[in-house]
């Protein structure tokens, strides 16, 4: 049963508007309806684009300091509402409270970085006299906002991945229409309430909920949208790129991240980090550890430590304080990966731990020495499953990591400096994390992938570059 107060509205042009049609939003853990959410149709999206064009004009009038202050204030309000926001996550995407609080803390930090970045969007002077015909000229560049940006976000980090789009977009003076994942609209609506309170001009942020195929499609194809910043699956990302025409498009897509364990001063600590990287938020993290390659002399010892630590994880209600793993975003996702486990078993592969499913909860699962054609080795799981594999030589380990359609981040544990630098040179990924797991991320570092993991970089400063146009001025002296 939902009450009238659970009926959500759209946020367009600084107004909270009723939708014509709604869908029931259910908690992935309890299956209960937690809200009714507007299903926006094409006309609503077109109205949002009109309002966002006005919003972009208002944003252009603000000084860098004013934009920075709004972002700073939003970060402060997030801090005051930490518990409330964490609870939204526990309800809408079954993120265990401990992890949900962590996401809100990162969201605050992301907006703070954006507030700082708003104050340092520089251009440069160009040494025009370096060319024969440039003599007697003076030139400089400046960065200008693009205008209206469409942000399309996934379900797994709905507050922080939205912050990675809203923060830099506002820092640079753009307006945004955000289309949150249909499973996680409440976080985007809560963020809109916070920015409204923080004093963002009307129309600078618009939240349009509904179906990706309807809302997303209008945003991607409308020429008034100057950029689409997308985080989500390869399949949807490719479709966006095909339909976006000449708009700027950045795509933050999936992965099946790997870590090499060549040598380690403290194998116990490495095993602990690998447990966190493999099973945090049930593996529904784009840089979740999915493939572990261990030098054969360390293999049995590592596997034993890793399995023992995995056994300590508690699964259950996301709103319970000691839960580590809860429901996947849908029971179908849990069944999909249960099918992978079944086919691994049928192929004679040993399941070292886990493999069971309780409703939408897939128990943390460790597969031993999966073959290179098994799903866990070559597809993205987005579930709590990891393969632990042994290798003989360093070159073999590098080849195994690179044998992937994806390339977001990779981790390398080694006590050898030459090997660490060699890994940086040879691994085909956007980021190499030495002596830690590939899941390491802080929010100002450049972040993005190669191959099917996408194109473009996030991390506030890098997003600001993507979200601005470089303008050149040449003066004839
Ligand atoms: P998804 O691709 O199913 O959905 C992402 C967003 O796209 C949603 O808002 C959805 O409504 C929208 N969408 C769906 N169809 C659309 C269409 N035709 N046009 C426009 N928009 C459309 O992804 P998901 O299941 O929400 O998230 C999981 C995926 O996201 C995984 O592949 C994961 O690796 C990836 N991800 C990547 C990063 C990263 O930074 N690289 C971070 C988090 C998640």
What can you see in these coordinates?
With 477 residues, the protein is α/β, with parallel strands linked by helices. Helix 2 (64-80) packs across helix 6, helix 3 (82-92) packs antiparallel against helix 6 and helix 5 (160-171) crosses helix 15 (460-466). The mean pLDDT is 97. It contains 15 helices and 24 strands. The chain has helices spanning 42-61, 64-80, 82-92, 97-117, 160-171, 185-198, 212-221, 234-243, 267-279, 299-310, 331-346, 375-378, 394-402, 417-426, 460-466; strands spanning 10-12, 15-17, 22-26, 33-38, 125-126, 137-145, 148-152, 175-179, 205-207, 225-231, 248-252, 258-261, 291-295, 351-353, 357-358, 361-362, 365-368, 385-391, 406-407, 409-413, 431-434, 450-451, 454-455, 468-476. The radius of gyration is 23 Å and the shape is globular. It has a seven-stranded mixed beta sheet, with helices on both faces. A six-stranded mixed beta sheet has the order 9-8-7-10-11-23, sandwiched between helices. A three-stranded antiparallel beta sheet has the order 5-6-24. The longest helix has 21 residues, at 97-117. Bound molecules: nicotinamide-adenine-dinucleotide.
